[in-house]
């Protein structure tokens, strides 16, 4: 990959990292700010608890994405950015432009998803 393209991707990764971090902080503040005023009935308490849990799950997903972004930045610094971590082949540049923190090429990602679906068993993860 050309140096200019790598620098542009690195800049996008850093910007995305800052956005994720800010969003995680915001969701945690929102969850912490949910308080029960007065004597709530059980439905109000349940709704508040569910909303708080939902906000924490959102921030957990963002934390996982933040870790992936940090790993991509580490690969960029190490010179291994853009190579599939499963097969070692170059990842298509269009994929990297859409998901700059991806670790796998399309073929390996599909294989991983199939393996995970088989491990989960029939009917798991479907509505």
UniProtKB/TrEMBL annotation:
<keyword id="KW-0489">Methyltransferase</keyword>
<dbReference type="InterPro" id="IPR000962">
    <property type="entry name" value="Znf_DskA_TraR"/>
</dbReference>
<feature type="zinc finger region" description="dksA C4-type">
    <location>
        <begin position="84"/>
        <end position="108"/>
    </location>
</feature>
<feature type="domain" description="Zinc finger DksA/TraR C4-type">
    <location>
        <begin position="79"/>
        <end position="114"/>
    </location>
</feature>
<keyword id="KW-0808">Transferase</keyword>
<keyword id="KW-0863">Zinc-finger</keyword>
<protein>
    <submittedName>
        <fullName>Dimethylmenaquinone methyltransferase</fullName>
    </submittedName>
</protein>
<dbReference type="Pfam" id="PF01258">
    <property type="entry name" value="zf-dskA_traR"/>
</dbReference>
<keyword id="KW-0479">Metal-binding</keyword>
<keyword id="KW-0862">Zinc</keyword>
<dbReference type="GO" id="GO:0008168">
    <property type="term" value="F:methyltransferase activity"/>
</dbReference>
<dbReference type="GO" id="GO:0032259">
    <property type="term" value="P:methylation"/>
</dbReference>
<dbReference type="InterPro" id="IPR037187">
    <property type="entry name" value="DnaK_N"/>
</dbReference>
